[in-house]
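User: I'm preparing a small set of examples for a lab meeting where we compare how different chains pack in three dimensions. I only have the primary sequence for this one, and I'd like the structure in token form so I can line it up with the others. Please keep the answer compact; I'll paste it straight into my notes.
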Amino acid sequence: MSEKRILIASLLKPINDTRMFEKLGLSLSKLSGVQVHIIGYKAPLPPAPTNVFFHPAFNFERVSLSRLTAQRTYKQLLENIKPDLLIACTHELLAASRSYCLKYGAKLMYDVQENYALNLTSQRNYPLPARAFLANLVRKTEKKTAPFISHFLLAERSYAQELPFLAKGKYKILENKYKPNARYDTPATPVSLANGPLKLLYSGTIATLYGVFEAVSLAEQLHDMDASISLTIIGYSPDKQTLKHLISLIQGKPFIRLVGGNQLVPHEQILQLIRESHVGLLPYQPNPSTERCIPTKLYEYMAYALPMLVQHNSIWQSILAEKKAGLMIDFKTERPSDILLRIRQQDFYTSGIPQNIYWEHEELKLLEIIKSALTDC
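Assistant: Understood. Below is the structure token output for the 377-residue chain.
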């Protein structure tokens, strides 16, 4: 029996993306008799099993004509790879994926990593008149493709209520929990920050919405009270103006360090800084697109027993309170002296690292779905 070919594809995510490669790709590579092909944005090739193949097909500015011609590249790759099962990780590849599946009898799944329509209307990435138009276009594409999708994989629990195109019994929630790598060791707990320097960390996408400037402001104020306090910002900024403003803001402040910024940062480098830091910052600004989601970094910080300062959010608050993983604060109004006092006085992770933060359980659900789909291919 010939090997089944599984294709995981995204237009903007790098081929070494945490979810697309490390979670979906590596998990599916454990299946016998399969090839796993990953199409994505150009990035360094990571070590991988022999049945995992990379296709770094895309390399363009986020707003450019090349983003449109990428569809042609994707269609050509589909014809060359001839997958039996496609997992589209972005709405932009749904139409081409559906056409291929109808032509060759392949199966299509949609890994919903974001509520794209909600993002477009609630975030300020595009001029106001364009937001509603683009959101409507995305939702139409998703609804039109939905009847041809054999299964939806949802990265957030909230999507089950938010997305109108889901059919009952055709979706599974696969949260972005932490997948340990070979270098991972369960950290010691409980954690006390009563004494010593404090290394603050902001990791992930560098954006106004995710509170990078609130992180800088808090670090400045805390540093004024305690010179041993520093901040590292690591990640990629998709917006050049945001990055330019950030660089000017931290210039001449050696206690604030920027890693990445104008380029993608390897996930392992981010994890290394999580290991070395004392406090993780999640200063997300209140927004409908994020208020019901659980950030991947929240799971990563808990896996390394990193205490967190998190912007008020009822969902995140319940997680932090249960695990004693950090403090809920208002980054804009709370007094820095009070924040510092709370950090120094409280013990964190007093019951150890919670076991429900790991990808292992999500992997079992994924493999069950894929095994069933491949039997019909």
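A couple of notes for your slides: The chain has two domains: 4-177+359-375, 191-357. Residues 191-357 form a domain with the Rossmann fold fold (CATH 3.40.50.2000).

User: Perfect, thanks.
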